[in-house]
Specification:
The chain has 10 helices and 13 strands. It is an alpha/beta fold and 334 residues long. Helix 3 crosses helix 4, helix 6 packs parallel to helix 8 and helix 8 packs across helix 10. Bound molecules: NADPH dihydro-nicotinamide-adenine-dinucleotide phosphate (NDP).
């Protein structure tokens, strides 16, 4: 039986990766910072099929003890502090979690069993704000934030360990990916939630930043499948994972609101205070390498993704209203 150790399993990608690995009959061990918190925020972790262990991500011994105890075939490192305006408040923790944790895992693998395969969830933020477009594996690394810098450090250490110690370690350079599991602080989920709330008479308008900002948005379920494929190859390599298509926040609003029979122009207000200080250049990924080598391609279109998110938010809010649902995170369907 294959086994996989997954950090960040209580997050969005953890939800979809757990689902995928369960379908493939893996034994899954989830590492979390807090068992109670993880179980309370993510109901997929109350399932018996996943073993959950607590570890201190800032302690090499703690990481190495878990790897040594379970000796998985594969490790997926999904844990990270997310990017966003809060990232300047605690850049040291970002460096620890998004950068140093990867080095701790690499060192553990090297010392314990160099056959263990590692996939790191990297980010397009390693390319910074104004890279040539589209971005691919050859785009210069030029991070412009503590989040991007920590991810870039992790990717660099992965390349070093791959060449120096011949480890099977690789980085998935992920562009934005969304789902009904996405946190409420992210723009896609803010919009899907607001469309549902306004439809149900629970809110009257949505204040949002730059409507013309564009992103390459994909579906999280497709992106974790790419990460799994990356660990099933003959050689470890880094891959950009993206849809290759940019959409604006305005298009997102149009889709989400029209799906519930509303015209977004009557409800969405551009809030100049919510503009990101430096709106990046066109961030669109080319996943040509992943498509050619891994045979990967996204299955869920932008349109289907947004409708799925709105439908789930409608269902969650309806269930909450009926007192059927325990809380915000009880989104199980997609
Ligand atoms: P989430 O924020 O949903 O989940 C991340 C998980 O990381 C959390 O559930 C948490 O699990 C763990 N974690 C560990 N340390 C911290 C910390 N200090 N603060 C907050 N969380 C922490 O992320 P996603 O599932 O969306 O993303 C998975 C990975 O993919 C991340 O590494 C992210 O950087 C990367 N990525 C994601 C993109 C996206 O669009 N979603 C784009 C590019 C990269 P626990 O509490 O159980 O420890």
């Amino acid at each position: 039986m294959n086994s996989a150790l997954v950090t960040g399993i209580s997050g969005q990608d953890g939800f979809y990766l757990l689902k995928l690995l369960a379908e493939k009959n893996y034994r899954v061990i989830g590492i979390t910072r807090s068992l109670d918190e993880a179980r309370s925020k993510a109901i997929h972790l109350r399932d018996q099929s996943v073993s959950l262990v607590e570890a201190d991500f800032s302690n090499s011994q703690s990481i190495s003890d878990v790897i040594d105890k379970y000796r998985p075939r594969e490790i997926y490192n999904l844990a990270a502090m997310s990017s966003g305006s809060g990232m300047y408040e605690d850049p040291v923790s970002i460096g620890e979690t998004n950068g140093m944790l990867v080095l701790r895992i690499l060192e553990s693998i090297r010392k314990i069993d160099s056959r263990i395969r590692l996939c790191q969830a990297s980010s397009r933020e390693i390319f910074g704000d104004a890279p040539p477009s589209p971005q691919d594996e050859s785009t210069p690394i030029n991070p412009r934030s503590p989040y991007g810098a920590a991810k870039a450090y992790a990717d660099t250490m992965i390349r070093i360990y791959r060449s120096k110690y011949n480890l099977y370690a690789c980085s998935a350079i992920l562009f934005n990916h969304e789902s009904p599991q996405r946190g409420l602080g992210f723009v896609t989920r803010k919009i899907s939630r607001a469309a549902a709330q306004i439809r149900l008479g629970l809110a009257s308008e949505l204040q949002i930043g730059n409507l013309d900002a564009q992103r390459d948005w994909g579906f999280a379920g497709d992106y974790v499948r790419a990460m799994w494929l990356m660990l099933q190859q003959q050689h470890a390599e880094d891959y950009v994972i993206s849809t290759g298509r940019a959409h604006s926040v305005r298009q997102l609003c149009e889709l989400a609101f029209s799906h519930v029979g509303l015209d977004y122009r009557n409800y969405v207000r551009e809030d100049l205070k919510a503009y990101r200080p430096a709106e990046p250049a066109l961030l669109v990924g080319s996943s040509a390498k992943a498509r050619a080598v891994l045979g990967w391609e996204p299955n869920v279109s932008f349109e289907v993704l947004i409708r799925m998110m709105v439908d789930t938010d409608m269902q969650v809010l309806n269930d909450l209203d009926l007192g059927k649902n325990g809380g915000e995170t009880d989104v199980q369907n997609n």
